[in-house]
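Hi there, hope your week has been kind to you so far. Thanks so much in advance, here it is.
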Amino acid sequence: RDRGCKYAQRASCTSDVPSRPRADSAPTRPSLHATTTLGRGYESKIYLLRLHLWAALWVRVESYTRTTSGQFSLWDLVTKRQCWVETCGASVLSVNYIAGKGLILSQLKDARVLNPAFCQLSPFNSLAEEMVPTLNSTCFAVADSKYGKVNIYDASLQKLALNVSVEEPKSKGMCMCVQACAGLSSATAHILGGFEDGSVVLWDCRNPSRELSSLKVFAEPVMCLDVDVTTRSGVCGSPLKTLEVFSVTQDQFQLQKQYSVELRNPGVSSVKVRRDSKIMASGGWDGRVRVFGFKKGKPLALLNYHSATVNAVAFTPGCGTPAEHSNLLACGSKDERISLWRLY
């Protein structure tokens, strides 16, 4: 039913409605096969997914989902059933699991935390306190509603830790997406932000008063980005018909453009690099999920299940994930469905 490639097969989906094949420029490969069903469709649009290893009483992989109705859902991927649901009363902008702390960090749309903008927060997972004395692993970065400003908040102390800003806020505009990075250097932590003018900006948390580097990647706003600290590279998307891959130099921490990936249709709402640094996935406004090799941007798969914008893509973490749930890709869409794909 779906066009894809030998690298992918659909592990599960959230609807009994058959997917509709669509034409695209991706190479023709063997069909994808549905093997199980995760559950029924949501009654609200899905905007965020997180896949994590739950290491309390269970040893299994769970999927955290976010909807516009202000509901958290925890899915058990073994039984394909919801095992926990929590209603918040307000739309949830993001939800993250803080590794090593056993905490779920959520961001509500009506939260009165540092005057946040509409973009999702990004936590500093595995951050050593000696990197930046004022930060710890419960800190997160979130864009401010003011032009060119990003705040770092300490969730454990419930207070502002520090903030960073661009040198020309009016020309850069608002921060559209943000990524906290604790692995680009063993001596400090960094923050990457994507802005309205199409640029990506890098900051050193030890010296938040100035930009380390700025790179113009699009003529339109940067809508999403992800960073792979192992290869010191990142990928970002926009309303245009390309993905842009960039790198961070070893010594001077300068942003440099690596290559572009051309897309058939415009609009990218989500991107993610798998933790083994081998592949990346993008969710498009056209409802398609595209999988590429991360090293050179080679097209690997075109996943044609969703009928509306794919707002979220997420990979299972590499370390500690059971073999039967390794290499999973979860996709959440505006069509109220979640799909799971097994990638080789």
Notes: The mean pLDDT is 78. The chain has one helix and 27 strands. The longest strand covers residues 46-54. The CA atoms of residues 316 and 326 lie 6 Å apart.
